[in-house]
């Protein structure tokens, strides 16, 4: 089995200096591949783990930039 390295959402936030929401939005929108690991004994939730390779691909694609102020859903009303 290959020695794979995984990162957390927190690791990525620190490395790129982006918000947790930026990373979670990328995961939700399938721009960043991630797997959810159990939150513990029967608990709901859990934490995301991202392969280093997937992180590098996401950075190269350039889809990790923070949205500009006012440039979100519902900004154009």
Architecture blueprint of SSEs:
Layout (H helix, E strand, L loop, with lengths): L5 E3 H8 L3 H9 L6 E3 L9 E5 H10 L16
Antiparallel strand pairs: 1-3, 2-3
Structural class: alpha+beta
Percentage of helical residues?
25-40%
User: Which sequence of strands runs across the widest sheet?
Assistant: 1-3-2
Count of individual beta strands: 3
Low-pLDDT regions:
none
Q: Kindly report how far apart the N and C termini lie.
A: 52 Å
Q: How much of the sequence is in beta strands?
A: 5-15%
Overall mean pLDDT stands at 82
What would you call the shape? globular
Number of helices: 3
Order of helix and strand elements from N to C terminus = EHHEEH
User: Any idea what the radius of gyration is?
Assistant: 14 Å
Largest sheet: 3 strands, antiparallel
Description:
The chain is of the alpha+beta class and 77 residues long. The protein is 35% helix and 14% strand. It has three helices and three strands. It has helices at residues 9-16, 20-28, 52-61; strands at 6-8, 35-37, 47-51. A three-stranded antiparallel sheet has the order 1-3-2. The radius of gyration is 14 Å and the shape is globular. The mean pLDDT is 82.
Summarize the structure.
This protein has 77 residues and is an alpha+beta fold.
Jot down its keywords.
three-stranded antiparallel beta sheet, single chain, 3 strands, alpha+beta, 77 residues, 3 helices
């Amino acid at each position: 089995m290959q020695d794979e390295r995984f990162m957390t959402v927190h690791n990525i936030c620190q490395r790129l200096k982006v918000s947790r929401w930026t990373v979670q939005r990328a995961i939700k929108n399938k721009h960043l591949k991630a797997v959810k690991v159990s939150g513990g004994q029967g608990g709901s939730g859990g934490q995301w783990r991202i392969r280093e390779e997937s992180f590098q691909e996401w950075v190269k694609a350039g889809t990790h930039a923070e949205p500009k102020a006012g440039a979100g859903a519902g900004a154009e009303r």
